[in-house]
């Protein structure tokens, strides 16, 4: 069997993976704080037919090798900030910097998100700050955040500190709680779990409180972070992947025609 058949097949698989990634990026172009992905590939095993050598008299300056195609090895997520869009909603929060909000998932484990489109969830304990799905938003100490007064009297500082403004005197007083913000040594090691959330892995390392980092982030209330997907860029990548897929398909067709010619040879 001709090696080119299998080599071209790996190319088609790789380009299909690329198209799948691009389609996911385009599907999330309007998703709050979505971070686009980029596939990474590497070449496969090489067969060395003749080795480069030099024995003083005779030399072969280059190797004679043939490769076995390509394979997708990683999906790299681009965590650069998306555009900040004003909403006017006091509970909408955008992070300027590299930090993530801390939330508690339905399984009770901590998760991290850049999506600051928060809501108020009515519980037995009072009005709790939560995500759109009702997951509790946590403070620096991993505790739920309860807003025991009217939202009009709540002030959230850029540092994440939650203040209460007395409507009679206009004096602002601290509630003692801060919106939990955390950073990571290796943000690429985070695992996306859907719902705009990520969880830590051994590769990402443990979450680091934002206030303990060299470049602490800030919170802008009344704003949301948009997706960082560039539609034009993704469309160009899509066309490139499609053309590469077609070329690999053509290589398979050509290899099949060559095999057919070889099979029709007569002595």
Automatic annotation (TrEMBL):
Pfam families: Flg_bb_rod (PF00460), Flg_bbr_C (PF06429), LlgE_F_G_D1 (PF22692). Residues 94-163 form the Flagellar hook protein FlgE/F/G-like D1 domain. It comes from Thermoclostridium caenicola. GO terms for cellular component: bacterial-type flagellum basal body, distal rod. Signal peptide: none annotated. Belongs to the flagella basal body rod proteins family. The basal body constitutes a major portion of the flagellar organelle and consists of four rings (L,P,S, and M) mounted on a central rod. The rod consists of about 26 subunits of FlgG in the distal portion, and FlgB, FlgC and FlgF are thought to build up the proximal portion of the rod with about 6 subunits each. Keywords: Bacterial flagellum, Cell projection, Cilium, Flagellum. Residues 7-35 form the Flagellar basal body rod protein N-terminal domain. It comes from the Bacteria. It is found in: Bacterial flagellum basal body. This is Flagellar basal-body rod protein FlgG. The keyword Signal does not apply. The lineage of its organism: Bacteria, Bacillati, Bacillota, Clostridia, Eubacteriales. InterPro entries: Flag_bb_rod_N, Flagellar_basal_body_rod_CS, Flagellar_FlgE/F/G, Flg_bb/hook_C_dom, FlgE/F/G-like, FlgG_G_neg, LlgE_F_G-like_D1. Residues 221-265 form the Flagellar basal-body/hook protein C-terminal domain. GO terms for biological process: bacterial-type flagellum-dependent swarming motility.
